[in-house]
Amino acid sequence: MPLIEETVVPGDSLLTLPIVVIGNGPSGICLSYLLSGYRPYLSPEAIHPNPVLHTKLEEARHLSIVDQDLEYLSEGLEGRSSNPVAVLFDTLLHPDADFGYDYPPVLHWKLEQHNYIPHIVLGKGPPGGAWHSMEGSMLTISFGDWMELPGLSFKEWAANKRRNTKSDRVMPEEIACYYKHYVKVMGLQKNFRDNVYITSVSRLYRGKDDEDRTQLNENISTQHLEMEDGQKSLIKRNWEVRGYQRATDGSHVPFCLFAENVALATGTFDSPGRLQVEGEDFPFVLHSMSDFGAAISKGKLRGKPDPVLIVGAGLTAADAVLCAYNNNIPVIHVFRRRVTDTSLIFKQLPKKLYPEYHKVYHMMCTQSHTVDSNLHSAYTSFPEHSVLSFKPEMKCVLQSACGLKKILKFSVALVLIGSHPNLFFLKDQGHSIGHHSNQPITCKGNPIEIDPYTYECTKEANLFALGPLVGDNFVRFLKGGALGIARCLAIRQKKKHELIESRDGGGDGVP
């Protein structure tokens, strides 16, 4: 679907929207769902297992959750997110999930057309974002139910599609299909544009002289005008979004549109983490599971005498170990932490639910290299080691925590130490909006700093962020960001309408 062709100079606005959402993964999809007018209410028969929260919900049963005080509702709740609204929305959708219960949601949803806020969701691929490019042979960490979005049960969808859901965990490709179907069945397609690449998002300050030559979208009309000095004027704190849409013939169609607000929902899958060491740019040093899988499927590693070198101690690195192990490829596994480190992700996963990861962890502990030992035939771990450099003859230099160095030969190296968002389209790549100014945004060390209840960036008004960009890496928690943003925008839209009605009614512009 064409976005909009750029046929005029940048100063002429072609389209202005209350909000543009950048990223069409689960964060962007859920936000679009709420902006489209879907509202959650406490179900008539529902009783939340938290009596304090249930009492609060009963106090305003007639109001949707979007219209209630989120700070009041989330007060005192605890969960596996540092964002209170994320914990609130999660416990409404999955009550007491962290205690092993499978209670149904206490919410039911209504579509209220009058609450629709015009918006557009821009993504590089089909709805679902990075889920369409994830390795398809591995199971998700979260249960299928925890990956679902409001209003559409994943289990029911899977049953209707005659998909096998015997396991509580599912393949990424299943989740990708579910998200794509979700957009269609919920009637959100009109808000989504695929094959879109953003090149810049910048502040735009325009004066009153621009008003008479600016065209507003016919469906938005006066919603984009606000009172200022007793006069109607274009919103001054406006965003300009530029980019291009890739057409079916491969050509690039540039576009330019304006927004009162921008929501960042890009996730952190864009740029793989790098060691920043000598030789990391050699073609035999890979940084993604997809590249590794492609090398295996093409037979590039078949019959190689030297092992694969895998760097990292997270779940993606564990997936790579399993992939190599299952294909009879010997592995050298290098990571900086001790195997007893309590922060290792394996320590947080129940053995019964994640046997394959505990198999890897067991090998990490029991098949480690010592000064006097040779490499094990199938797998050897090097705890508390770091890579100093890669050599052109396909060797790497390792250094232990005590400073001892070792040179190892390998067939291919795979560096899997996390990924970071690519916010190149923002000023200074977004370094100014994190908790630590002038540092790159990362989901763990330096997420975007937001208001905990509106998800608006504290250092940049009218810019919102949700999902992994604010530290919510699990789908079950990113939905809270959509709730916070939807409530914030609904309040602002209501105030704007009141101001315009007051002005049109002959008042002095002040309610």
What does this structure look like?
With about 500 residues, this protein is of the alpha/beta class. It contains 11 helices and 21 strands. Strand 7 and strand 8 (about 230-235) form a beta hairpin. Helix 1 (about 25-35) runs parallel beside helix 11 (about 475-505), helix 8 (about 290-295) packs parallel to helix 9 (about 315-325) and helix 9 (about 315-325) crosses helix 10. The two termini are about 40 Å apart.
- Unreliable stretches (pLDDT < 50, length at least 5) are 4-13, 206-236, 507-511
Number of helices: 11
Roughly how many Å is the radius of gyration? 25 Å
Largest sheet: 7 strands, mixed
Distance between the termini: 42 Å
Content-based structural category: alpha/beta
Proportion of strand residues: 15-25%
Strand-helix topology:
Elements: E1 16-22, H1 26-35, E2 38-42, H2 51-59, H3 70-74, H4 84-93, E3 107-111, E4 119-122, H5 144-147, H6 154-160, H7 172-185, E5 192-193, E6 196-204, E7 225-228, E8 231-234, E9 238-246, E10 252-264, E11 271-272, E12 285-286, H8 289-297, E13 308-311, H9 315-326, E14 331-334, H10 355-366, E15 379-382, E16 385-391, E17 395-400, E18 405-409, E19 412-415, E20 419-420, E21 463-465, H11 475-504
Parallel strand pairs: 1-4, 1-10, 4-5, 10-21, 12-19, 13-14, 13-19, 14-15
Antiparallel strand pairs: 2-3, 6-9, 7-8, 9-10, 11-20, 16-17, 17-18
